[in-house]
From TrEMBL:
Membrane association type: Multi-pass membrane protein
GO terms for biological process, alphabetical: Golgi organization; protein transport
Coiled coil stretches, renumbered: none
Domain of life: Eukaryota
Keywords, comma-separated and alphabetical: Endoplasmic reticulum, Membrane, Protein transport, Transmembrane, Transmembrane helix, Transport
Cellular component terms (Gene Ontology): endoplasmic reticulum membrane; endoplasmic reticulum-Golgi intermediate compartment
Keyword Endoplasmic reticulum: yes
Name recorded for this polypeptide: Surfeit locus protein 4
Main location: endoplasmic reticulum
Organism: Oncorhynchus mykiss
Length: 265
């Protein structure tokens, strides 16, 4: 059947790209932190003045905030890409997300909050991957099976990742929007429950990549316009969520999923 052919092609693609996919996933995942850390350097005074004016915290604390964001994000990215102290780097980036959520009042903007939670989902998956790498060093030691914390990290990561797609749903009566909402909702449910997970995640990667390039083309807007920064921020946040989905494609859904339960039936 057509579905079986599609699944076979997907499996072949995953086999060919297996060794490269995790590296690409990690690079995409840290892209928003890398971009934001570099932006802190080039917009040092603007960021410092914004925090000082918004919170009335004074020059010293505002400077510490910008410095922490710059070093925390760039340092975390270097550690993740070099595969050193990945778990500590992930916890550090979790802290940066929490700090920015409060400092930039993202807590009260549901769209930005959901996107930040989706970013946290990607980091959870990266944390789960680093745990499996740590265990692989003891490959000869008998094991009681996959560790529960890792399974639940993968489940939490998948569920948080799909929040990104909730912000992309358009509630207007056009046929295209209705179709996009129906297909998108079906795919995010499949990823969340872990059914046909790799195929659903790969389809979402392609869909999100197309949306990202079309709607967040910051390179087409002059750098002096405020819209340039908004689109750039959206572009790299979306790229990070794509990285999280690529980790799902590379590593699978984990133990707490319908795909895994099917093996037991």
């Amino acid at each position: 059947t057509h579905n079986e052919e599609l699944l076979a092609k997907c499996t072949k693609f995953l086999r060919v790209t297996k060794q490269y996919l995790p590296h690409l996933a990690r690079l995409c995942l840290i892209s928003t932190f890398l971009e934001d850390g570099i932006r802190m350097w080039f917009q040092w005074n603007e960021q410092k003045d914004y925090i000082e004016a918004t919170w009335g915290c004074g020059y010293f604390l505002a400077t510490c905030f910008v410095l922490l964001n710059l070093t925390g994000q760039l340092g975390g990215c270097v550690l993740i890409l070099s595969r050193h102290f990945v778990q500590y780097a992930c916890f550090g980036l979790f802290g940066i997300i929490a700090l920015q959520t409060v400092a930039y009042s993202i807590l009260w903007d549901i769209k930005f909050l959901m996107r930040n939670l989706a970013l946290g989902g990607g980091l959870l998956l990266l944390l789960a991957e680093s745990r499996s790498e740590g265990k692989s060093m003891f490959a000869g030691v008998p094991s009681m099976g996959e560790s529960s914390p890792k399974q639940y990290m993968q489940l939490g990561g998948r569920v948080l990742l799909v929040l990104m797609f909730m912000t992309l749903l358009h509630f207007d009566p056009s046929f295209f929007s209705i179709l996009q909402n129906m297909v998108g909702t079906a795919l995010i449910i499949l990823v969340a429950i872990g059914f046909k997970t790799k195929l659903a995640a790969l389809t979402l990667v392609i869909w999100l990549l197309a949306i990202n390039i079309y709607f967040n083309a910051f390179w087409a807007v002059p750098a002096y316009k405020p819209m340039h920064d908004f689109l750039k921020y959206d572009f790299f946040q979306t790229t990070s969520v794509i990285g999280g989905l690529l980790l799902v494609v590379a590593l699978g859904p984990g133990g707490v999923s319908m795909d895994e339960k099917k093996k037991e039936w």
